[in-house]
Specification:
4 helices, 4 strands, globular, Alpha-Beta Plaits
Length: 96
């Protein structure tokens, strides 16, 4: 199952925008993958310049290293903006 290395993710939103099934969401100002919805197409991995999205199962060592991120103002703004943008695109497809 694909997963996001939280230490490498910079919350740029590229994976969020490219996911065709909306399986990527924001958690602690970082991307997370909903493995129940993910179709494993690999588009998110191809577009992530930080190489934060990994194709294999998340190793136990990585889970132990992960620290909770604090959400700063820029993280809140970026996450909110991207979520609203995706919502608006769905509801109003002619708006860019």
């Amino acid at each position: 199952m694909p997963w996001v290395n939280q230490e490498k993710c910079i919350a740029c939103g590229v994976c969020f925008k490219i996911c065709p099934v909306d399986a990527i969401y924001w958690w602690n100002a970082r991307a997370k993958i909903d493995n129940n919805n993910c179709k494993k197409c690999g588009k998110c991995m191809e577009t992530c310049k930080q190489e934060a999205i990994r194709p294999d199962s998340e190793p136990q060592v990585e889970k132990k290293k992960r620290k909770l991120n604090t959400i700063g103002l820029s993280g809140i703004f970026n996450s909110t903006f991207l979520i609203l943008r995706k919502f608006i695109k769905k509801k109003l497809p002619n708006v860019k």
